[in-house]
Amino acid sequence: MFDSPETLAEALAGEDYVIDPEFAVVVHLATALERPLLLEGPAGVGKTELAKSLAAAGGRRLVRLQCYEGLDDGRALYEWDYGKQLMHVQMLRDRIGELLSGTTTMAQASARLRAEDTGLYTEDFLLPRPLLEALLSPEPVVLLVDEVDRTEESMEALLLEVLAEGQVTVPEIGTFTARSTPWVVLTSNDTRELSPALKRRCLHYQVAFPTPERETEIVSRRAPAVATDVVADVVELARRLRELPLRKSPSISEVIDASRAAAVLGLESAGESEKVRSTLLAALLKYGSDRELAIARLDGDGGAAVEVAEDSGWVRRSSRPADTTSGAFGKGRAASTGGSAGARDRARRGLR
Ligand SMILES: Nc1ncnc2c1ncn2[C@@H]1O[C@H](COP(=O)(O)OP(=O)(O)OP(=O)(O)O)[C@@H](O)[C@H]1O
Ligand SMILES: [Mg+2]
C-alpha cells in the first residue's frame, strides 16, 4: 500500500498529520507486515489521530473500539439483535401455531420447537460490534482499539484471540474467519501495564511530545488561520510549561486551542498582557495548582523561579519587538505596555 516510510509520511501530511521520520518507519512496517501497532504515550500527542489519519490516507474505513472499564463481549464483539429476532418470531407465529397443533403440554411444545430450525441464530440476526465488524468487512479497514489500558485483563485475552487467530467463534453459529486483514492500532495512556502476551504480538512505539519545530508545524496545519509567530510563541510557552512538575502537561490539542485563543484575544483586546496570559494558561493548564505553579515560575518570584523565566524563550525572545504574545507573557517588563496590541496585529494578519 505505502511503498516506503516517506510515501506514508507524505500521505499522512495530506491528511494534516505530521509524523516523525522514526515513527513513520514503525507505522510503515506495521502496515507492510500487517502487524498490530501499539502506541503508548501521554495524553494528546496524536495517538488516536494517527489511526484516523492512517485510515483516511490509506482509503480505508475506520472501525473504532473505544475501551472503558467494564467493556464486555457484547460491546466489543457481537450481540444478538433481539428486536429483529422478535419480529421474525411474530412473522412465524401462524406457522408456529400449525407446528404446535396437537401438542398438549408445554414440554411437548418446547421439544417440537427445539427440533425445528427457526433460523433465529444466523448471521442475519447478529449485530457485529467493532472487533467482529473489522474481521467481517470484505474491504480491509483500520481497526482502532482506543485506550486499551482502561479495560480489564479479560478483555485483553479476547483481543489477543482476535488479533492472533484472526477469527471469532460464535457458539450458535460457528467460527468466523477474517474476510480481510485490518491494520490494527491500539493506544494506551500507560495507566496500567499491558500484558506481555499482548505486547508481544504488537509493534510498539512510544509517542512523545514533538520538538518545538514539529509542534509549530502541527499547530500551523491544524489552526492555519493563526499567524506563525503567534503559534511559535505559544509552542515555546508550552515547552517551558512541560519542564515544570505539573499534574498535567499541556497537550498538542491544548496548544492548538491556546494558539487560536491568542489570535482571537489579539483581535479583541489591546494591551492587556494579563488577559493574554490568563487566557493562554486557561487553555493550556487544567488544574488550579498547575496554574499557580506556572504563574509563580514564569513571573519569576523567587530565585529559582527567575532562573526558569530567564532562560526561557520568553525572555530570550524579548529581543524581538516587545509587542508579541511572548512579550506579553514574559515577566511584565518587555510586555506590560501594548504587548498584546502587536499580537493582535499579527493575529489579524494571520486570520485574513
Ligand atoms: N502529529 C500530529 N499531526 C497533526 N495533528 C496532531 C498531531 N498530534 C496531535 N495532533 C492534534 O492533537 C489532537 C489530539 O490528538 P489525539 O486525540 O490523537 O491525542 P491522543 O494521543 O490520542 O490523546 P489521548 O491519550 O488523550 O486520547 C488531534 O486532534 C490533532 O488535532
Ligand atoms: Mg486518544
TrEMBL record:
<dbReference type="InterPro" id="IPR027417">
    <property type="entry name" value="P-loop_NTPase"/>
</dbReference>
<dbReference type="Pfam" id="PF07728">
    <property type="entry name" value="AAA_5"/>
</dbReference>
<feature type="region of interest" description="Disordered">
    <location>
        <begin position="314"/>
        <end position="352"/>
    </location>
</feature>
<protein>
    <submittedName>
        <fullName>MoxR family ATPase</fullName>
    </submittedName>
</protein>
<dbReference type="InterPro" id="IPR050764">
    <property type="entry name" value="CbbQ/NirQ/NorQ/GpvN"/>
</dbReference>
<feature type="domain" description="AAA+ ATPase">
    <location>
        <begin position="33"/>
        <end position="213"/>
    </location>
</feature>
<dbReference type="InterPro" id="IPR003593">
    <property type="entry name" value="AAA+_ATPase"/>
</dbReference>
<dbReference type="InterPro" id="IPR011704">
    <property type="entry name" value="ATPase_dyneun-rel_AAA"/>
</dbReference>
